[in-house]
């Protein structure tokens, strides 16, 4: 199930979810291969950070609350799927408007570096 209607509090949940490196790792794992079990995700996390199954489950729960992960039962397994819609909405709302002005910002940063870089001093040359 993909969700589309979001409010400010939902954005806060997404930002909070994305703030943690373990949760970003889980999202990356689901991006690489969607529909993973808790055990598979635990293995991925433990390649980088030592964490219990319960810890990984807590991170997944927060990702589900932010609608970034959707879980479905398939037989005896519970599979976790990435929902990219909230991230796209964050991009459209927050990041996109700043990247539109990236050209101007890059020019201003270049000018700032040029102005702040001291000119080479002339040594006493023979």
Name a few traits of the molecule:
126 residues; mainly alpha; Arc Repressor Mutant, subunit A; 6 helices; elongated; DNA-binding transcriptional regulator, ArsR family; transcription; transcription regulation; DNA-binding
Describe this structure in words.
There is one protein chain. With 126 residues, this protein is mostly helical. The protein has two domains: 76 residues, Arc Repressor Mutant, subunit A (Orthogonal Bundle); 29 residues, no CATH class. It is 60% helix and 10% strand. The longest helix is centred in the C-terminal third of the chain and has 15 residues. The chain is elongated. The protein starts with 7 loop residues before the first helix and ends in a 10-residue tail after the last helix. The mean pLDDT is 87. Pfam families: HTH_20. This is DNA-binding transcriptional regulator, ArsR family.
């Amino acid at each position: 199930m993909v969700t589309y209607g979001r409010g400010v509090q939902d954005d806060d949940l997404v930002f909070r979810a994305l703030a943690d490196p373990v949760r970003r790792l889980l999202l990356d794992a689901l991006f690489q291969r969607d529909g993973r079990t808790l055990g598979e995700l635990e293995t991925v996390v433990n390649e980088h950070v030592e964490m219990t199954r319960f810890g990984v489950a807590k991170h997944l729960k927060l990702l589900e609350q932010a609608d970034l992960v959707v879980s479905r039962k398939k037989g005896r397994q519970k599979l976790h799927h990435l929902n990219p819609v909230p991230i796209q909405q964050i991009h459209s709302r927050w990041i996109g408007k700043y990247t539109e002005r990236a050209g101007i910002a890059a020019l201003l940063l270049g000018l700032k570096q040029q102005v702040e870089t001291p000119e080479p001093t002339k040594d006493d040359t023979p």
